[in-house]
Amino acid sequence: MFQKFGIVPTDGPPRDRDADDPGRLAITGRARDQGVFRVPSLRNVGVTGPYYHDGRIETLAGAVDLMARRQLGKVLVSKEVDLIVQFLHTLTGTYQGKWLMRAKEDTSS
Ligand code: HEM
């Protein structure tokens, strides 16, 4: 699906940067698509960082923390982030019989 990135307003650099990013508007020309991006499948997300359309976040824990803040308006404690990250790592699978691995190891958790 497509969703607005940054539903919950926040201060600081990410929002400033996002104000200039047309997102899906660049494809459709529809004003309502300003700042809208494809929600990526989370399959294999543990090995596909850096995260988001512009690779702004290096670690999965950082991506989960930002999602909670900007999409849900919630601040997670690190234990909650850790548990979600552990769950997301269960979505990593095999390709041609071999476990997928991230080229550069994510040391966030
Ligand atoms: C705790 C709940 C959530 C978790 C753990 C989560 C996790 C993630 C992760 C890990 C990514 C990065 C994927 C990648 O770059 O490969 C992502 C991207 C994204 N998520 Fe979430 N998400 C959550 C809630 C939401 C909600 C509620 C929405 C929308 C209503 C949303 C919309 C998006 C969008 C649009 C992107 C792509 C943004 C971009 O490429 O810049 N997420 N999510």
Structural overview:
The protein is α+β, with helices and mostly antiparallel strands and 109 residues long. The protein has 2 domains: 1-39, no CATH class; 41-109, Cytochrome Bc1 Complex, Chain D, domain 2. 33% of the residues lie in helices and 9% in strands. It has 4 helices and 4 strands. Strands 1-2 form a two-stranded antiparallel ribbon. Strands 3-4 form a two-stranded antiparallel sheet. A hairpin with a 2-residue loop joins strand 3 and strand 4 (98-99). Helix 3 (60-72) crosses helix 4. The relative contact order is 0.18. The mean pLDDT is 90.
Shape: globular
Any idea what the CATH architecture of the largest domain is? Orthogonal Bundle
- At the fold tier of CATH, the topology name of the largest domain is Cytochrome Bc1 Complex, Chain D, domain 2
Helix content: 25-40%
The helix count comes to 4
Compact summary:
The model has no long low-confidence stretch (mean pLDDT 90). This protein has 2 domains: 1-39, no CATH class; 41-109, Cytochrome Bc1 Complex, Chain D, domain 2 (Orthogonal Bundle), CATH 1.10.760.
